[in-house]
Structures are given as C-alpha cells and as structure tokens.
Description:
Layout: H1 10-30, H2 40-60, H3 63-68, H4 70-83, E1 89-92, E2 95-101, E3 104-106, H5 108-125, H6 134-154, H7 158-174, H8 179-202, H9 204-215, H10 218-228, H11 235-251, H12 280-313, H13 317-339, H14 359-416
Antiparallel strand pairs: 1-2, 2-3
Helix pairs in contact: 1-2, 1-12, 2-14, 4-5, 5-6, 5-7, 5-13, 5-14, 6-7, 7-13, 9-10, 10-11, 11-12, 12-13, 12-14, 13-14
Amino acid sequence: MLTKWKHIDWTLIIVLLCMMGMCIPLVHSAVATSDRFRGLDTQMIFYYILGFGVIFFMTLVDYRLYVKYFWIVYGGGMLLLLLTLTPLGQTQNGAQGWLKLGPIGMQPAELFKLALVIAIASLLAKRNKEKLGFLADVIPIGIVAFIPFAVVMVQNDLGNALSYVLILIGLLWIGNLKFTHALIIFVLGAGLLFGGIKAYITYHDQVSDFMTNTLGRAHWLDRIDPWLMPDEASRDASWQTKNGKYAIAGGGMLGQGFMQGEMVQNATGSLVPYTYSDSIIVVIGEEFGFVGISFLLVLYFIMIHRMIVIALECKDRVGSYIIVGIVAMFMYQIFENIGMFIGLMPLTGITLPFISYGGTSLLINMASIGVVMSIRACTKEDLVRDEFADVKGAKADDGGIQAIRGALSRIGRSKKA
Length: 417
C-alpha cells in the first residue's frame, strides 16, 4: 500500500504549496484591520498541514472502495445535510448549513460535493459505455442530484446548491449522453435562464413581493439586483460588489503592494465584506493587481490540466468520471467566485478553492485532490502489474521454446547414435 506514494503527482503538490504560499499572507492581510477575525491566518496554516495529511491518506486508499460502497457515501452525506435542519444545525451568514459536533464545526454542503461526484460517477460507470437512456438513466441520476440540491436550497445556501447542478451537467455530458437529449437540456436550460432574466427585469416589483412575502428570501434580491439591475439596486445590496470592483480596478497592473490596499486596509475597517473568505479575490486584485490574479489563474490552469491528463491516462472509466466531476466542481467555484466581482455572475456565498479561509472547504478540496492521486496511483500500479505479467508470460514462452529445442536436439543425437 505504501508503494502508492511513489505515484504521487508532484506537480499538483507543488501547485498546492504555491497556493498555500498565497493563501496565508492574503488571509493575514484581509483580517489585519479586524480584531474579531485576527488569527484566521494561523488557523489556515493548521488546516493546510492537516489537508496535506488528508491527501497522503486518501492516496493510500483505493478509490474503487468508494465506488463499491457509493450508496453508503451518498447516504452518509445526506444524513449530515439533513442534520443541519435539526436543532444541531447552526446559522452563519444567513445560511443554516453548519453542524457543531462538540469542538468540531463543519459545513456538510461542502462535504457532499465529493460524495455526489462519486455517486453519479458510479451510476454512470454501470452503463458500460452505452448511451444514457432518458427515463432509465438521466431522470434517476437527476433525482440523485436534485434531493441534496433541494435540501441545500432550504438551508439558504445558493452557491453550494448550484455547484451540484454543474457537477451533474459535467458528468452527464462526459457520461455518453445522447446528442438529442443534450440538445433538449441545453435548449430548456437556456430558455429558462434567459426567460427568467427577462421576467425578473420586466416584473421586478411582482418578483420582489413574491420573494419577500411568500418565500421569505428578500436577501436573494440583494444578490441578483446588483448583477441584473445595478443602477436600481440599493446601496446596501451593491456595497460588496461595487466596492470589490473599485478595489480590483484600483490595483491596476501590479497592485498597490502587500497590505497597502486602500479599500481592504481602510482605517475604519475593510470596505469590502468577507475579504478573508468569499471576497478574497478583491485582496489579490488590489494588492497584487492584474499580475497577481493572472498568476493565480495560471496555477488553477496547471492544476486542472494535470487532473485532465490523469483522467485521460486512467483505464478505468469510473476513475475518469470522478476526476471530471471534481474538475467541474473546481471550475464552477473559480468562475463563480471571480465572476461575481466583475459583473459576470450574481453574488453567492462560494469560496475560492485553496485560497479563501475555511476549514471544511479546504479539507474537502484537499480530499478531492487525494482521490485524484489515488486514481493515478492505482492506474500506475495496474500498468506495472500488466507489464510484469507480459514479461512473465514472455519468459514462460521462451522456456517452452528452449524445451522444444532441447527435445529436438536429443532426438537428433539419438538418431546419430
């Protein structure tokens, strides 16, 4: 089992070390003007050390074990999600998505991302390269994703709920979905998206009344209005995104310097909320400018490229599916987190992978990388085993040829005698 460590992808480890080298100073800068959050950077050092331990542990565990018992993985994740709706659940930043089990606090919605990837990948692999049937496959797999989506929406956590949708779409696309079904889903999705945006803008007063008085989700308006109707959004609703844009724009090409940002390091406190977590891209943009954000994007590109290469090398279809699901999870988080501060996406409570403060988020991301490492290690071991079997078979064949030659030579000698 320990031999699997030989097959660790060191490119991914180096990328993660670089991200750690960015994360700690950025979180330190983000909380420098706040006594309330002081010390979060030290906690992230601990979480990163623990995270690397999780990677090495997950590398040793054969990923096919998760696939074999994927219903247990899925069921355990659903149990944790449902517990948040009981008195054990706690509310933070308006979302009842946290569990406090003794001294340990966790966010099950983050943990469930990996469980959902494993569950959907395992179900797709059972089709064994066959085209997915709409009623037999797409609908049941969609229900597997919709149930946790509904629970997380009840928790009032839109960001993580949407990540389940992107994981589902990514895996269905790679899982041999029929072109006609993909076209129907695309047309329906595009129609709902653009139709919903048009209806939201046209009937804003009615939508506002419905969300506020019927659904009790008035804060959703504060997240959607700055995205679709920035000129009509209230000052409080647009405060975070507008100041975030000003901070990123103020960074210019090279930034204002470490801990020198005018918006983040304001004497009265940061003018952008949650700079240590959801808004940490603002710290990078203001203090390190376009170059700093570009460097981070290059690290993400290398990480995703390496995972795709590992997926292509994997001979086991379910292993490739799992990696694709993990890639979809990361790409959504990266695009959503950065996009909401440049006007491309609505504001949601989603962290920037490996950079934002958050123990649960970091550890589940590290565990996901650990699963990728396990897939790579198992692929390499299977390859070595197959090559050894070929060599062993060749030696056996050589021995048979030598035996035949020996028998013929003995026959020749007997004839001469």
